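mind reviewing these tokens:
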Amino acid sequence: MVDPCKPEPSVVIIGAGIAGLSAAQRLVQCGISNFTILEATDRPGGRIHSCWLGDVIAEMGCQYIEGACIGNPVYNLAAQEGLLKLPMKRTDPLKGMFCTSDGRAVGNSISMMAFHVFKQIESEAASLFHIGCGKEHGSLQNFFKWKDSTGMNVYLAHKFLNGLNGFKRDVKRPKTIRAPGGPQHIRIQQELQKFPEEHRYDASRIMYGLTNILRTKLGADLSQVSADNFGSEIEIPGGDVGVPLGFVGVLSPLMKELPDLGSLWVSSGGERYRAGIRDPEPWCSAAMEREYCADYVIITVSLGVLKEHGEKNVLSRLTSQQNGGDKKFRLRSRRKPGLREDFLGVVGRRQVRLVSDTGQENRLHQGRVEEVEGSKHVLCAFISGPEAVVMEHASDEEVAEGVTKVLRQFTGDASLPYPSTVLRSKWASDPYFCGSYSYMNMQSNIGHQCDLSCPVPGSCDPVPPILLFAGEATCAGHHSTVHGARLSGIREAERILQLTKKYSGPPPKDCA
């Protein structure tokens, strides 16, 4: 707690996502309520966005609490609000079936064998971060298999929508990043040789399909993801659990602790922010050029916004480390179209994972489709990478026809109906997000995450920190997670609290 007899510093928080709300909550808990939250959209939550689709809650953003235990601050929020009922339904990676592009479900025994072998290879890739050893292992693509993935994303996007109402769009072909070959780059091929010859074909489909599912989870082509940093994320035990009444419910305990939102909540009316440092104090301007002067500014915008607009709109002064960090750390593109239709139990086992062989012609299908919890006629499909951006700009009819075509092919059931409703996220084209969540590319490392979290001015400057940075991309070890975003907001609030105690109030004006 700060001394209630001392004056409070003034704080502006840019963004009402969970990072910004967590920072505000922590400030209030410790006696600082002189802050203003600036939010560009018409809702709180940021990339937490729950909405109705038919008779169920659909998650357009974060879907699971990753690590259902008391070591996860987001799990604690959900438990505090009574959102999780016992027994909790954790996701089971073994549930579901693997369907091939020729309309056949792979047998359960082969599926489980291939699945466990792939998970072992994945664990080996994750161990590279902890082993260190000073060697560069290239991309995650190269670790799993020695294949050239040039054009894979673009090919998938065009083939997926090929012939649908004359839909044609130009997408640039991604460059393939390759590293020197070696035994570690052919792990899948090595393991396939251990399978009986009659099972090798199906096992290969499953394992190569699982690399595509991993790609969907990471939100980027594996040729762009660093193998050496793949294991840098700290895994919280407890499994993944959904929030039955909507992930947005975890915001409720944060909102309840804030003062009167009428005086704190300021919608920018869709305008971008500018923030900077000028004599005698930091400033931030939003809609209609209104300026908010404050002692500290906590910036919680996504990495995509920093990369897209940072140099000209958000910050007037950045350290060289941060300028380098936001270029080497990237934001993913991931879409989740929700589909409402009467599938009459076609999914059956809760999840269908689409697998095809390693030939480029069959790379147009990847990822998984699963039933939305609590409904028998709403499905959720996961699409990532450049093809997700293509899907974002397609019409609902094109998406419905494309997804139905894929499901009919992989399930072998030509009678599957078209969905009656399509609901999808559009994070990449939203100027206030510019992507879904961050990943570590081939040029990034943990140091870049730490650089992004450094305040401006830095520790070596004669003036105290003024511009503070929060958000999942700034939380080393927990990037791309909701709990990482929450921890980062608390971290920056704690920084302000420590500075307030140091100066017995706001920072001296002759310093600022």
The longest strand covers residues 35-39. The mean pLDDT is 78. The chain has two domains: 11-49+246-330+440-503, 97-237+334-423. DSSP finds 15 helices and 22 strands in the chain.
